[in-house]
Specification:
13% helix; two-stranded antiparallel ribbon; ten-stranded mixed β-sheet; alpha+beta; 33% strand; globular
């Protein structure tokens, strides 16, 4: 998959900028941080630092996930935001399109996750060694054999939303790791970080930034 890395060349979309923080809309197909090797050097943080050299990493989104991503513009903001992510004080909302239609209108998934070593970066559910992971979800609408959901992760495990939806029996459309058959027949991973709520590092005011899903 790495040899096929051909990230989109969309211009940087800035959602919010002030003295402490920068929020941008990450395109699908672009790494958050550099991968191993020259061919994986193009990434969102490199593009951000070309314009804002002082920008510092706070969190990541998977390469194929799009949407709201926050960067710190001062070391103080990086520490402040890092603690909020660590202590689960941020509130994240995602939009996903999944294969099949959940019978319930909403629900929760509480399944521990751990890396599937022989198949990494895939993750798997493991009740013995997995780390706690919780996701709330809500069905927004249905479209034939697919459904649009809002996902509210309570924890921030790698591939959490992707594995939890698979565990529900509704893999996210075009997921290269977890979808199979007709669920793979879509133009991109249908997962988008729609909204991030956080306490602003300067003054602590509750702040909300959104980016509309492009699908």
């Amino acid at each position: 998959m790495d040899s096929e890395y051909n990230p989109p060349q969309d211009p940087l979309v800035i959602l919010h900028e002030d003295a402490e923080v920068l929020l941008v809309d990450k395109p699908s197909g672009l790494l958050s941080v550099p991968g191993k090797g020259e061919h994986l050097a193009d990434c969102l943080i490199a593009r951000v630092q070309a314009v804002f050299p002082q920008a510092l990493l706070v969190h990541r989104l998977d390469r194929d996930t799009s949407g709201v991503m926050i960067f710190a513009l001062t070391p103080h903001a990086q520490r402040h935001l890092g603690l909020q992510f660590e202590k689960r004080m941020t509130r994240k909302t995602y939009v996903a399109r999944v294969w099949g239609v959940p019978e319930e209108k909403s629900g929760s998934v509480d399944l521990p996750l751990i890396v599937d070593w022989p198949n990494r970066p895939r993750q798997k559910v493991c009740h013995e060694t997995g780390k706690p992971a919780q996701t709330d979800w809500k069905r927004v609408k249905t479209d034939g054999e697919t459904a649009r959901l809002r996902l509210f992760p309570k924890t921030g495990r790698s591939h959490q939303l992707r594995v939890h939806m698979l565990a529900l029996g509704h893999p996210i459309l075009d997921d290269p790791f977890y979808a199979t058959g007709p669920a793979r027949d879509f133009p991109r991973l249908m997962l988008h970080s729609e909204e991030l709520r956080f306490n602003h590092p300067q003054g602590g005011a509750s702040t909300k930034v959104r980016a509309k899903a492009p699908f």
